[in-house]
């Protein structure tokens, strides 16, 4: 009887193991566990077993039953896994295929510079002011202490509309509009579009952009101007950017200065001893001429201030290494897509 | 541009510095050295090429440069020998009479007379120096005037005394008066031009160019040397207007030392005697409109230190100023500074402060930060809105471009904007540099088409662009400087918005799309990839939604840039705030664009003015919604908005409405279309019953029929 059971176990196991796929396994299951199946009919009825053998045979019959069931479960799991693997191979994702993405829009490099400046200067407590591009010469020249006969006023350098209306030649006009409508202290930057009567080439353009800065308060010094512009250069061009200040001349600042940056073959240079580097002018600045403060009704003994004006194309050209100003205005997406 | 031969410079100041060091030092003093060259000819050494700022006329001479070097290095300034070997027998009295009529344009006229000169080439040493300064040597009589000009900064003119005669007048030219200048050109003058006369007729264009009739030549024997002081603006204008910019006018335009005329005349006479064998007549004629005296300015050391952020002593400040040749007396802690006449740019205390800073060295001023701000820096509401709008355009996959505001009426007309510029108050330049850039754009759409065209030509790829810029119109000729001067005093309490502006500059958004939204969309059908008019409308809807514009309506648009029947406009309170549509075929042809382009332009100024950027939380729904779909068949001429409005009018508890299909064709009568909507009903405080929702749906069907002839689709 014991041998019968062992044989039964071996036969059933062999049947199940032989199933090569899920369908064959199902057929084998019927042969093993079906109504006429090996296990169903092959296991002895306990009533037919002599009483003294019942504990032994009963235990053995249970073991066989469990063993065959275990074999079936394992086979089923194996075949299911194999099926999944086969199906998966067909729908496997190739991670080297290019992805699909809604093409992102890109900011213009001058917007990046604009936002850099706004971020830096709002951090210093400056608000962002704006003014008209079609401007009165009163704001563009007269109130900035630019004399009637100054070459900048000449029709060769500036675009005139009619009579005293011009396309603004610098964003400094916004200084006057701000100071005429606001008591000190004043802290503004004024980024915007300006115009000069220049023919277009790689470094000149009739249209370009400036960012004006103006701070008027008690006890503002030339050292403060240097400090804030130095900090700006570090923020814009990275720590270690080297700048220098030299005297310059503008009718509406005194003392006037220009800031230059140390520039090498690879762009902004952090090595003061680099033999290939040279100074490139970045911006003009100075202490607001007391006459300009007086022109807008400020007490120039109590208040002092500084102003600067920086060409935004210039900043972008130095930062990104752009060598032709025209690229900023042509809208070629192969250019703007690089930023 | 001023050329400084180092060999010549070293005659007036001794320095151990090499060319590079000297260049760096001068640049640090504000005299920017742009180039260093080898001196041509026999002079040897280097030549520094300096860019001199317009306020520093005193640096347009070798001596002036030497003065700066001496001031910084402490070396002694060696003046040239100015002694004149005057003739004991010949006196100038009665031989030269000067009458200055135009006293506002000529402050001083000094003259010397040299007799018996021998014209011919100037000595080699003089020629070498002139060449190094960029001046071609001509003849001793001319060269010597140039030499002294480069050396001392005073432009001179040499007349042939025998042709000139004893009388010299200085007056404005008469209207239409003709002067034949040295270069053989007959110049027609105006009262804006200053003329030197022989008492009657013009003999030289003051400070700019001599006349042919009195020019020195190989036959000249007796020379009158003119050393005068002319007003800068007048000389600058004359030189510019006549296209006669010269070393002389360049210097006069930047103010020369009014106290230096005699010194220059003396030096010139001395050199003529030495190099051309002349006899110098004793005495100088010096016509002076008013006495020329050094100005005295008070410098408050405390003010100077506060202004610069320095802590210099009185003596240090005095030291710097004295090094520049100024006389300084310290009285009660204040500096009384006498400014020499060669520094006419220094007239106020703040000018002295600049001189102190310059000599101390800008780079030696410690860097500090200004006093802390009393409030945060901020963007205006409009600037914040503009940032948001830019971000949304970028998120929609549009690339930002910046295009010129300057364009031409022809370029505007190319896109169908053929209005008469004057009629709409367009900003037209009086002195345009070229016809391509003669007017300020009143729409940005032409620029968008140009950019699309350029990109098509350049790479033919996707072009999805936008620009946030300005458009310009409504020029008001009544707004003038006079208006500004009257408006603008802080005491009147104006706001920035109320100061006069000459024209309306509208914040504008424009864009163009053509091509695909996706990169590498290898598993999407091609028809889902392209940009179309609905995408652009969607962007505009998004912007209106983000700005919380209430009551925006849409209707067709007849802007000529668009294909008829393929465009639209958005209106707010009766005003157009945006237009969009497919570009008309004819206009695409004009830009040589071979595929469909959708354009849009929005008046950001108006949109932002009406916007609400504030945000407040609304509780999330707590009860489930009832969802229903409805398809209504309406005649084609009924706009979708009318159907939507009809639904909203009667649909109680409608939380959301979404159009999900538009169908036209089989199963529907000709000229009709079906609009299918998904409706979401919800109450905040309980669940709606089916009965309630069914009733709402029935009302919708009924009302849609009356309001817009809609029939429930079977």
Structure description:
The complex is a heterodimer of chains A (339) and B (714). Chain A has 339 residues and is an alpha+beta fold. Chain A folds into two domains: 2-90, no CATH class; 109-336, 2-Layer Sandwich (BirA Bifunctional Protein, domain 2). Chain A is 40% helix and 23% strand. In chain A, strands 2, 6, 7, 8, 9, 10, 11 and 12 form an eight-stranded mixed β-sheet that branches. In chain A, β9 and β10 (267-268) form a beta hairpin. In chain A, α1 (2-18) runs antiparallel to α2 (22-33) and α1 runs parallel beside α4. Chain A starts with a helix and ends with a helix. The mean pLDDT of chain B is 93. The relative contact order of chain B is 0.07. With 714 residues, chain B is of the alpha+beta class. Chain B starts with a strand and ends with a strand. Chain B folds into five domains: 2-73, Phenylalanyl-tRNA Synthetase, Chain B, domain 1; 86-288, Phenylalanyl-trna Synthetase, Chain B, domain 3 (Phenylalanyl-tRNA Synthetase, Chain B, domain 3); 295-363, Phenylalanyl-tRNA Synthetase, Chain B, domain 1, CATH 3.30.56.10; 381-490 and 498-609, Bira Bifunctional Protein, Domain 2 (BirA Bifunctional Protein, domain 2, 2-Layer Sandwich); 626-712, Alpha-Beta Plaits (2-Layer Sandwich), CATH 3.30.70.380. Chains A and B meet through β1, α5, β2, β3 and α6 of A and α7, α10, α12, α13 and β20 of B.
């Amino acid at each position: 009887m014991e041998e019968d059971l062992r044989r039964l176990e071996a036969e059933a196991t062999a049947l199940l193991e032989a199933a090569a796929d899920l369908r064959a396994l199902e057929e084998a299951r019927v042969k093993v566990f079906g109504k006429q199946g090996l296990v169903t009919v092959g296991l002895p009825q306990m009533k037919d077993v002599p009483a003294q053998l019942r504990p032994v045979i009963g235990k053995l019959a249970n073991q066989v039953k469990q063993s065959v069931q275990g074999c079936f479960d394992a086979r089923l799991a194996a075949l299911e896994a194999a099926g999944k693997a086969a199906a998966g191979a067909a729908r496997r994702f190739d991670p080297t295929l290019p992805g699909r993405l809604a093409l992102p829009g890109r900011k213009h490099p001058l917007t990046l510079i604009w936002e850099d400046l706004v971020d830096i200067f709002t951090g210093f407590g400056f608000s962002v002011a704006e003014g008209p591009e079609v401007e009165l010469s009163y704001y563009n020249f007269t109130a900035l202490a630019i004399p009637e006969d100054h070459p900048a006023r000449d029709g060769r350098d500036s675009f005139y509309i009619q009579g005293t209306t011009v396309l603004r030649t610098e964003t400094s006009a916004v200084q006057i509009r701000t100071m005429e409508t606001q008591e000190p202290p004043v802290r503004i930057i004024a980024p915007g579009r300006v115009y000069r009567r220049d023919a277009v080439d790689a470094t000149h353009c009739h249209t370009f952009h400036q960012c004006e800065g103006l701070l008027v308060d008690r006890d503002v010094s030339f050292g403060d101007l240097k400090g804030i512009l130095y900090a700006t250069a570090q923020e814009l061009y990275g720590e270690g950017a080297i700048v220098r200040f030299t005297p310059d001349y503008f009718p509406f600042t005194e003392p006037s200065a220009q800031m230059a940056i140390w520039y090498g073959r690879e762009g902004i240079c952090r090595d003061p001893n680099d033999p290939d580097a040279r100074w490139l002018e970045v911006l003009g600045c100075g202490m607001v001429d007391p006459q300009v403060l007086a022109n807008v009704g400020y007490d120039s003994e109590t208040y002092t201030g500084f102003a600067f004006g920086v060409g935004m194309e210039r900043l972008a050209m130095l930062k990104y290494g752009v060598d032709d100003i025209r690229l900023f205005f042509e809208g070629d997406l192969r250019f703007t897509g690089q930023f | 541009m001023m050329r400084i031969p180092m060999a010549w410079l070293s005659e007036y100041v001794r320095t151990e510095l090499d060319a590079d060091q000297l260049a760096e030092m001068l640049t640090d003093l504000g005299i920017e050295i742009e180039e260093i060259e080898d001196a041509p000819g026999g002079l040897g050494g280097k030549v520094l090429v300096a860019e001199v700022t317009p306020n520093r006329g005193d640096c347009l001479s070798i001596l002036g440069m030497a003065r700066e070097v001496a001031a910084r290095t402490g070396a002694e300034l060696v003046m040239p020998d100015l002694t004149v070997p005057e003739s004991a027998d010949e006196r100038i009295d009665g031989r030269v009479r000067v009458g200055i009529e135009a006293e506002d344009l000529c402050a001083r006229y000094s003259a010397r007379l040299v007799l018996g000169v021998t014209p011919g080439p100037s000595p080699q040493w003089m020629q070498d120096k002139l060449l190094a300064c960029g001046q071609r040597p001509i003849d001793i009589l001319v060269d010597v005037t140039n030499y002294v000009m480069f050396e001392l900064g005073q432009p001179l003119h040499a007349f042939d005394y025998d042709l000139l005669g004893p009388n010299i007048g200085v007056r404005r030219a008469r209207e239409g008066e003709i002067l034949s200048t040295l270069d053989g050109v007959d110049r027609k003058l105006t009262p804006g031009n200053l003329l030197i006369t022989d008492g009657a007729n013009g003999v030289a264009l003051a400070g700019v160019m001599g006349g042919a009739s009195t020019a020195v030549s190989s036959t000249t024997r007796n020379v009158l040397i003119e050393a005068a002081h002319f007003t800068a603006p007048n000389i600058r204008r004359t030189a510019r207007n006549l296209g006669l910019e010269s070393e002389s006018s360049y210097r006069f335009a930047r103010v020369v030392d009014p106290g230096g005329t005699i010194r220059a005349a003396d030096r010139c006479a001395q050199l003529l005697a030495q190099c051309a064998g002349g006899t110098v007549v004793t005495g100088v004629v010096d016509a002076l409109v008013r006495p020329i005296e050094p100005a005295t300015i008070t410098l408050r050391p405390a003010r100077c230190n506060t202004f610069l952020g320095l802590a210099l002593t009185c003596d240090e400040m005095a030291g710097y100023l004295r090094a520049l040749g100024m006389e300084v007396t310290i009285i009660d802690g204040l500096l009384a500074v006498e400014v020499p006449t060669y520094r006419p740019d220094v007239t106020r205390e703040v000018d002295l402060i600049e001189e102190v800073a310059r000599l101390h060295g800008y780079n030696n001023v410690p860097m500090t930060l200004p006093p802390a701000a009393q409030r945060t820096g901020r963007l205006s509401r409009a600037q914040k809105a503009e940032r948001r709008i830019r971000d949304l355009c970028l998120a929609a996959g549009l690339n930002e471009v910046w295009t010129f505001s300057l364009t031409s009426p022809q370029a505007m007309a190319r896109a169908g904007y053929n209005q008469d510029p004057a009629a709409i108050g367009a900003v037209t330049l009086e002195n345009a540099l070229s016809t391509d850039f003669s007017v300020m754009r009143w729409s940005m759409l032409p620029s968008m088409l140009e950019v699309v065209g350029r990109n098509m030509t350049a790479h033919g790829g996707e072009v999805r662009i936008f620009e946030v810029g300005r458009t310009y119109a409504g020029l008001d000729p009544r707004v003038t400087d006079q208006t500004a001067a009257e408006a603008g005093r802080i005491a009147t309490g104006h706001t920035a918005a109320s100061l006069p502006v000459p024209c309306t500059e509208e914040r504008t958004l424009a864009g163009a799309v053509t091509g695909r939204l996706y990169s590498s969309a290898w598993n999407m059908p091609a028809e889902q990839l392209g940009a179309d008019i609905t995408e652009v409308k969607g962007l505009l809807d998004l912007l209106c939604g983000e700005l919380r514009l209430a009551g925006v309506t849409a209707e067709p648009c007849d802007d000529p840039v668009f294909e008829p029947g393929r465009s639209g406009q958005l209106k707010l309170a009766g005003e157009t705030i945006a237009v969009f549509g497919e570009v008309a075929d004819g206009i695409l042809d004009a830009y040589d664009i071979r595929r469909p382009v959708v354009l849009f332009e929005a008046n950001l100024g108006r949109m932002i003015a009406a916007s609400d950027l504030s945000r407040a939380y609304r509780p999330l729904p707590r009860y489930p919604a009832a969802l229903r779909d409805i398809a209504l068949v309406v005649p084609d001429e009924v706009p979708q908005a009318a159907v939507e409005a009809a639904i909203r009018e009667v649909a109680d508890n409608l939380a959301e409405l979404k159009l999900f299909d538009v169908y036209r064709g089989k199963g529907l009568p000709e000229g009709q279309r079906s609009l299918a909507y998904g409706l979401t009903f919800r109450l905040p405080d309980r669940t709606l019953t089916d009965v309630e929702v069914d009733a709402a749906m029935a009302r919708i069907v009924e009302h849609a029929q009356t309001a817009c002839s809609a029939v429930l689709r079977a």
